[in-house]
Amino acid sequence: MIPMEIDGNLMKLIITNGSVKLKNNHQEINDLNVFPVPDGDTGSNMQSTMMSGVEAIKPLEDDTVESVGKALARGLLMGARGNSGVILSQLFSGFGKAFQSLETANAKQFVEGLNQGVKQAYGAVINPVEGTILTVAREAVEKAQEVATEESDVLDVLKTYLEAARVSLENTPELLPVLKESGVVDSGGAGLIEIIEGMVAALEGEIYQEDRSAKKAAAKAAKGHETDQEEEFGYCTEFIVQFDESRKKFNKDKLIKQLNRLGDSIVVVADEEILKVHIHTLKPGDALNLGQEYGEFANLKIENMTLQHTETLLHQPEG
């Protein structure tokens, strides 16, 4: 039976199924990764982020969509990895927060959640770039809003979203030259579609199991990564700060200006309890010092993107 409404248990099921589909196919997403840095980890970061959200909602049984949404939002934020992962966390965090005071969600409310996610993601990315996952999510939800009503079948509306997302993904090379030069579509947008396909499958009764076998061979060969190996990409720097009393003096705009002097691919997210920052920079220590002004680190990660890119080149198939 096609659902007219989504309850907490069904919300858990579709989010989990979408996350598992992405996890099982994340290497294919890695192989598309050329932006913002061709380090081949977009799929890995996205699936890790979503599975953190899945772990957060796993204990919930017979809860409301509000409870599932809140747990999902916090789990995603705490577990977000990489530029793509942080953006993805905001898409689904905004989605999860949209169900306040709701026990169940109809198709119109469900799509409004997707729309809130788009708004939150655009707000978190300091310099949004079109032709990325942001574009795919925005154009898909715009199409879904045209058909979503309180009486709509959730499955039908989500299928409309999915079809629009696929069309938008195919157009990403026209918006982002580096994609066209490399002969690929946006990896983040492709990862989002994996999730939505899994959500649709769950509503149709197809449940995926995690593939725990050895790494799957990539279905698509990465193309056009002949970037000068002398190019320096810097460090992918991420941290979560647990706010202390300094929360009172926290100014997001001020922090963004300070981070802008240090690098790019900046995403800043803050609530009443924590601050999450992602930045690509040559001076990770300076970025960490800025964050530590507001509290203690709950988590941090620094990865050398130049080395990651070199590893990607070394493991590329010849041809």
Q: Would you mind describing this structure in some detail?
A:
The protein has 319 residues and is of the alpha+beta class. The chain contains 13 helices and 6 strands. The strands form 2 sheets. It has a 4-stranded antiparallel sheet, sandwiched between helices. It has a two-stranded antiparallel ribbon with strand order 1-2. Helix 6 (107-124) runs antiparallel to helix 7 and helix 8 (154-175) runs antiparallel to helix 10. 50% of the residues are buried.
Helix/sheet category = alpha+beta
Major sheet description: 4 strands, antiparallel
- Cα shape: globular
Helix coverage percent? 40-55%
Q: What is the succession of H and E elements?
A: EHHHHHEHHHHHEHEEHEH
Number of helices: 13
Could you outline the blueprint of secondary structure elements for this entry?
Blueprint lengths: L4 E2 L1 H17 L1 H5 L11 H16 L7 H15 L2 H16 L7 E2 H18 L8 H15 L6 H22 L1 H6 L4 H17 L31 E9 L8 H9 L2 E8 L3 E8 L2 H9 L2 E10 H10 L5
Antiparallel strand pairs: 1-2, 3-5, 3-6, 4-5
Helix pairs in contact: 1-3, 1-4, 1-10, 3-4, 3-5, 4-5, 5-6, 6-7, 6-8, 7-8, 7-10, 8-10
Short description:
With 319 residues, this protein is an alpha+beta fold. The chain has 13 helices and 6 strands.
